[in-house]
Amino acid sequence: MVARPGSAAPREEDLKGVGLEKAKVVLCLRTTPDVSASEIRGALAAGEPITGKVPSAVEKYIASHRLYAG
Q1: Which side of the chain, N or C, has fewer Cβ within a 10 Å radius?
Q2: pTM to 2 decimals?
Q3: Cβ distance 37 to 61 under 8 Å?
Q4: How many CA atoms lie within 13 A of 43 on its CB side?
Q5: What is the pLDDT along the chain (70 residues), one digit of tens a residue?
Q6: Number of helical (H) and strand (E) elements in the chain, helices listed first
């Protein structure tokens, strides 16, 4: 699990609430882009590039699978 920027690590109750066991979760503490899925979908819907907002592999995956194509 990767925490979003500005968010606290999930509590055990939070994990249980989505069906995860704390003992089976690895929290990755690394910097992630400060961008939301809504922002990405909005940019793509408007025909704007998402280069630099997501890793290039993610951008290629979205394009090749025509995700968020309207």
Answers
A1: C
A2: 0.57
A3: no
A4: 15
A5: 777 777 788 888 989 999 999 899 988 877 777 788 899 999 999 999 999 998 899 999 999 999 887 6
A6: 3, 0
